[in-house]
Amino acid sequence: MTVYDEIGRDYSRGRRTDPRWMARITDAVGTAGVVVDVGAGTGSYEPRATVLAVEPSLEMIGQRGATPPAVQAVAERLPVRDDAAEVALAVLTVHHWTDWRRGLAELRRIASKQVVLAYDPRKHVEFWVTREYVPEIAGLERGRPGADEIAEELGADRIEVLPVPWDFTDGVFPAYWRRPEAYLDERVRRNSSAFAQTDPEAVWRGITKLKRDLADGTWHRNHAGLLDQQEIDVGFRLITSRA
Asked: Is the entire prediction scored with pTM above 0.85?
């Protein structure tokens, strides 16, 4: 059983495609006719050219549509022949791989181009939820590979910043940076591995404090500068590399 067999049961609703990120990913994939989506999840960011999805969690596979076909497998051992694809796509998945370097080597083995959406864990450590309410999340984030490490391993040709707009529709951990009330919803937290893989008691303490700070206005006083911003950089990077 994978972590997403436990925490991904409502993923298709809580982690909805944001069209702004989809456009950037589609542009990075380009005109490729054969794409393999590795760590595909429910398929939120699969371009039309995707011919195969690879996903270790049966729970996630069960929330997918009929196309493209999906196979249960891990990134470190892809059931795909050498050079079978034009693009190997990996969206917000590398930080969950057991051996991320081996997984990236597999991406290079099966495709001449790699498109990887990753993030800088340091930004998530600095995020106000972690810094002020659930500092235990920092321990989890510090153990994850960063976008800069992934880009170096791939020998990236291009690294793009993907900012998170205030009305972002994909419930990634920092998605609600300007909508703090959302973090009071257990369903929102359940769809974020940062919360779901952190000690539940620590999360509960932090969320209880956040609820108090929202009720008495403390949060809004401390973060007034965020309320006028349309988007922020919380570390997400789109990495493109040609093997």
From this structure: yes
| CA gap 136, 134 in Å, rounded | 5
pLDDT over 50 (residue 12): no
**CATH code of the domain in which 142 resides:** 3.40.50.150
Q: Is 41 left (phi over 0), alpha (psi -120 to 50) or beta?
A: left
User: What is the span of the domain harbouring residue 90?
Assistant: 3-242
Instruction: Give the list of residues 6+ apart from residue 67 with CB closer than 8 angstroms, or none.
Output: none
The residue count for the chain: 243
Provide mean pLDDT across the span 107-130. 98
- Whole-Å CA distances, 31 to 26, 34, 48, 161: 9, 9, 10, 22
As a whole number of angstroms, the distance between CA 157 and CA 215 comes to 47
Task: Give Dmax over CA atoms of the chain in angstroms.
Answer: 59
Give pLDDT, residue 8.
44
User: Over the chain, what is the mean pLDDT?
Assistant: 93
